[in-house]
Amino acid sequence: MSRTPLTREEITTALAALSGWALSEDHKSIRKDFKFRDFNTAFAFMTRIALLAEKLDHHPEWFNVYNKVEITLTTHSAKGLTALDMRMAQLANEYAG
């Protein structure tokens, strides 16, 4: 999957299909807060994302407290958003149910 930075138009188009994800002010990352039934469900979600991250060699920035998981995605090597970030966001939405 490409690590080429997306254009603003490509970002806008991709985000339209990603429920709940918000673009940062600098347009270099996207973020979403997920809320689960309990800690175990949140941790299971994080485990699935961790396995995906290893497979894609693309790792999220995240923060977890009890049943909440906050994820920020960016591609540091591209200094912005790439198709890899959008794919990971799409799969995170699917994994969260």
Automatic annotation (TrEMBL):
Q: Which GO terms describe its molecular function?
A: 4-alpha-hydroxytetrahydrobiopterin dehydratase activity
Q: Which reaction does it catalyse?
A: (4aS,6R)-4a-hydroxy-L-erythro-5,6,7,8-tetrahydrobiopterin = (6R)-L-erythro-6,7-dihydrobiopterin + H2O
* Cited Pfam families: Pterin_4a
Q: Which GO terms describe its biological process?
A: tetrahydrobiopterin biosynthetic process
| Record keywords, A-Z | Lyase
UniProt key word DNA repair: no
Per its UniProt record, what CDD domains does this chain match?
PCD_DCoH_subfamily_b
Q: Which InterPro entries match?
A: PCD_sf, Pterin_deHydtase
Q: What is its EC number?
A: 4.2.1.96
Alphabetized PANTHER family for the sequence: PTERIN-4-ALPHA-CARBINOLAMINE DEHYDRATASE (PTHR12599:SF0)
Family designation: Belongs to the pterin-4-alpha-carbinolamine dehydratase family.
Stated name of the protein? Putative pterin-4-alpha-carbinolamine dehydratase
